[in-house]
């Protein structure tokens, strides 16, 4: 079918891209760039022309401007989404128009480009889009999410998010499995063969943050004896996972926002910016919206990071997953010689509130296998604590001195973190210890997010 006003290009076995823009010079620039990459392109200047081509042809990618004479690029994004098409769509937005980019990503766009179009970023985007899998990557491994309805929903969303480049905000309590979800999104995406770089934002001293994130040049400061790459460069082509992103100080939030918007970073001591191809996934156990309202987190960065939210439910909301998690954890700890839990032990686990979620379950089972000394784990071996800190079996019965001291220390740290809104530096001051000492204790007690 011939559509008037639509430019047709080469046919054949090449991957085909639909380019939608009302400016002829931009269409020609993108068309030439794609041709040099060995790709065929059809070009349209309006929403109507684009929809006509999409109905009659099969494309591997669609690039569309946001502002068109008869509508906007979101209409094309929504059309493909509602029709069940798996064609990735990237939108081209005006420079500095963050709201349009976020709106497009929320509507289902794969990624975005800002005008004036950078050919280097265009080529990177196209390569990433054309690697997108139609099915699960064969090397991605099993998607372990549990049998509960809540985790089945999480698993389905992970599959969808793996096919996008949109920033993701993962929310959930400490120990609920936020990093595991981020790793699964990465491994099942087109970036799965590239690095996954996890960063605990609350564990980096403020004066080192810029150099840690963006790298530095030799001689940039005392001790900089050679060039060094930062987290963004280490994650090139892959995923940068920002854990405890709410702990970032405001000055660093400004720099991070610019890096995300411009897709470029500048090393400390350098005068030029370097392009980076990195997907951002962030997480925190704190309520990020409340942090925005309190003024401790920038609103513009919040909207950039929270394009799509993935909530990981706490273990107490999905108790039907406990048996499967127990078997999985015991298999990892003990191999084929797994101990058997008594009925009393199963009942105790079923009614336990799990304030530390899956991480706490792992700690409980590791301790129980050490204490049981046999092929059976009984309720006494679990040493479960009530919410108030008392042993569920009564007082300190069966509890060693080390366990008792660890419990008291854990409770004191938890109270300090709650008192300071999760700020580790402030919590260390409340406890009268150094920040480094607090980090060590959090790690030893299994309280790290």
Name its key features:
Helicase, Ruva Protein, domain 3; 5-stranded parallel β-sheet; alpha/beta; Rossmann fold; 449 residues; 19 helices; globular
Shape descriptor reads: globular
Whole-number mean pLDDT: 84
Binned, the helix content reads: 40-55%
Structural class: alpha/beta
Biggest sheet statistics: 5 strands, parallel
Major sheet: order of its strands? 2-1-3-6-7
Quick rundown:
By secondary structure, this protein is α/β, with parallel strands linked by helices.
Describe this structure in words.
There is one protein chain. The protein is of the alpha/beta class. It is built from 19 helices and 16 strands. It has three domains: 16-130, Response regulator (Rossmann fold, 3-Layer(aba) Sandwich), CATH 3.40.50.2300; 149-313, Rossmann fold; 317-444, Helicase, Ruva Protein, domain 3 (Orthogonal Bundle). It has helices at residues 24-36, 47-56, 73-82, 98-107, 119-130, 149-161, 178-187, 209-214, 231-234, 250-262, 288-294, 299-305, 322-334, 343-351, 357-372, 379-382, 401-419, 424-431, 435-444; strands at residues 16-20, 40-44, 61-65, 67-68, 71-72, 89-93, 111-114, 168-171, 196-200, 239-243, 264-265, 274-275, 279-284, 308-311, 340-341, 376-377. The strands form five sheets. It has a five-stranded parallel beta sheet with strand order 2-1-3-6-7, with helices on both faces. Strand 6 (89-93), helix 4 (98-107) and strand 7 (111-114) form a beta-alpha-beta unit. The longest helix is centred in the last third of the chain and has 19 residues, at 401-419. The chain is globular. It starts with 15 loop residues before the first strand and ends in a 5-residue tail after the last helix.
